[in-house]
Design a protein that fits this description.
Layout: H1 2-19, E1 29-31, H2 52-61, E2 69-71, E3 81-89, E4 92-100, H3 108-120, E5 122-125, E6 128-131, E7 133-135, E8 138-144, H4 149-164
Parallel strand pairs: 1-3
Antiparallel strand pairs: 2-3, 3-4, 4-8, 5-6, 7-8
Length: 171
């Protein structure tokens, strides 16, 4: 009985964190668009560790995400670690989630999640579809409440940076 209660509580926590549901949000950091007049080059992935913290530092350094990093419940999708950023960008509310998987030792949930993202571009958790992108052992879920030209361009840049994350130890 206790196990069922814990499973239900964990599932409820995942539903709340993955759904980005409405309600009053805490004050979010504003990530300003990079001015075209600034000569700025992204940091190379090779200078970051090949783990979730390294990926997060890489994304922060490259101005892809902003604000406080919250650690996420990740076992429900078979990952070994997970975190989320929530911030404002050009008037939109953005949520960027990152997960790390051990591809050599995926449990049933992990295999189902990874296979679904590879085949369909999304995974389902608690009946909700979460559109995601895989880059090796990393998974990103990126949502923005605004889809104007500036926000779409930033989303494309974030995707490009995420896909470019190949630390020196990666194959």
């Amino acid at each position: 009985m206790i196990k069922k209660i814990l499973v239900f509580a964990g599932a409820a926590a995942v539903a709340l964190t993955l759904s980005a549901c409405g309600g009053q949000m805490e004050q979010l950091t504003e990530l300003e668009p990079v001015s075209s007049g600034i000569d700025w080059a992204p940091a190379e992935a090779a200078s970051f560790e090949d783990d979730l913290d390294g990926l997060c530092k890489y994304m922060e350094t490259n101005k892809a995400v902003s604000g406080e990093k919250d650690y996420m419940s990740y076992k429900e999708i078979g990952a070994i670690d997970g975190c989320r950023y929530r911030f404002k960008y050009d008037g939109g509310t953005v949520q960027a989630e990152f997960y790390e998987f051990d591809l050599e030792n995926l449990d049933e949930k992990g295999k189902e999640c990874v296979d679904s993202v590879r085949e369909k571009g999304f995974f389902t958790v608690l009946g909700n579809e979460a559109h995601a992108v895989l880059n090796g052992k990393y998974l990103m879920v990126y949502t923005d409440s605004d889809n104007d030209e500036t926000n779409t361009a930033h989303s494309d840049e974030v995707l490009e940076l995420f896909n470019a994350f190949k630390p020196r130890d990666s194959k």
